[in-house]
Amino acid sequence: MDSVGVGGGPCSDPDPIMPFKANAARRQGNRVKEYVTVLHGPGPGCGWTGGDTHREAASLPWNRFAVPFKHHAEHRHHIPKPRYRVTNWAEYDASLRRRGSLTVWFTDEAIAAWQAEPRTTPGGQPHYSALAISTALTMGLVFGLALRQTEGLIGSVIGLLGLDLAVPDHSTLSRRAKTLEVPPLRRAGTGPLHLLVDSTGLKLGGAGEWLVEKHGTSRRRSWRKLHIGVDAASGEIVAVAVTRKDIDDAAMADALLDQIADPIASFTADGAYDQDQVSQAVAERHPDAAVIVPPRAGAVASASAETAPTQRDRHLRMIAERGRMAWQKASGYNLRAKVEASIGRYKRVIGDALRAHTDRTEAAEVAIAAAALNRMLAFGRPNYVRIA
């Protein structure tokens, strides 16, 4: 049967309520024509079939293609995904198992310095040292426990080890986390640092995923922004900060750079950091450091590009002459993928939501989490080679 539309002409615009008319007529026992949407093929995606045949691919007329972005997928250039093989699997497998060991996180240093030192100033005497509180909070983050469950875990570990130590209760952990001074992050490597910077979002309270999907975004739903700096050579987190979601990424460059004591050889970040304040912050602290940030779309060279070009001017010139992909490879910008991998590791191991509810406790939480991830890397890292 020839394909005709509602208006009688070939492939005219169909009636949006035709499927419902067809169902109503079928219930009355009439033989009706069913509307069929052709999802793939040379036709425009409309047609009729007669008789009592079942509907093969029914769809509303405004949804001619179920996945429009795949319409020309077979004509696109596909880059094959690279494949790698781990060469030290035995050592790496042992390091993964060590991450779940209780005795690894409950260290001898924490046991020796469990009780707080006597105060020399007026005020109450704390029972637990900052190291003891950090140890308890670290175990809670690593194993995904709330404060009450963390209290029970610490008590069971102390009991199994046969130690005569007091167990901090959940109220003490919550109160001490507000004033806890977490030691600054220090990398194990030496030499100039190639810094990779990026940011991501961490959920904070509000409606759950099911409620948002069913009823829409809640006005009470909120999140925080995690700013992170990673060593390109070792993958260690060397700087971390948490802010409100409305804080610009480039505005946190000073705070991240202030946490780093080693000399910086390069500062690599995405286009959100293409601002003068970022270049100035790096130049003030590390004048010889390279700033590898892709210029934004529509960027123009500075007034002194011909006589005294800046790093950004040289990036613009190379992109104009050789293209962006060649610039990324020549400048080392592709190493920025490692900071994205670190963010993914943070969310897989620690989680994509904050447990704390105040600014001080949030800062302590992300600092403790970064130190825990660095310690996991110290247990062992995979060595791999590309095979395809």
Which structural class is indicated by helix and strand composition?
A: alpha/beta
Question: How are the strands of the largest sheet arranged?
Answer: 6-5-4-7-8
Q: How can the largest sheet be summarized?
A: 5 strands, mixed
Order of helices and strands: HEEEHHHHHHEHEEHEHEHHHHE
What is the percentage of strand-forming residues? Answer: 5-15%
Domain unit count? 3
Q: Assign an overall shape.
A: globular
Helix content: 25-40%
Tell me the name of the CATH class of the largest domain: Alpha Beta
Number of strands: 9
Distance between the termini: 51 Å
Low-pLDDT segments, ≥5 res: 1-14, 16-22, 30-60
The CATH level-2 architecture of the largest domain is identified as: 2-Layer Sandwich
In short:
The protein is of the alpha/beta class. The protein has helices spanning 18-27, 89-98, 102-105, 108-112, 130-142, 147-161, 170-177, 209-215, 253-258, 276-285, 311-322, 324-331, 337-349, 359-379; strands spanning 34-35, 48-49, 84-86, 193-204, 222-231, 237-244, 264-268, 290-292, 384-386.
What features would you describe in this structure?
With 388 residues, the chain is an alpha/beta fold. The chain has three domains: 18-75, no CATH class; 85-177, no CATH class; 193-354, Nucleotidyltransferase, domain 5, CATH 3.30.420. Helices cover 37% and strands 12% of the residues. It is built from 14 helices and nine strands. The strands form three sheets. It has a five-stranded mixed β-sheet with strand order 6-5-4-7-8. Strands 1-2 form a two-stranded antiparallel sheet. Helix 5 (130-142) packs across helix 6 (147-161), helix 6 packs across helix 7 and helix 11 packs across helix 12 (324-331).
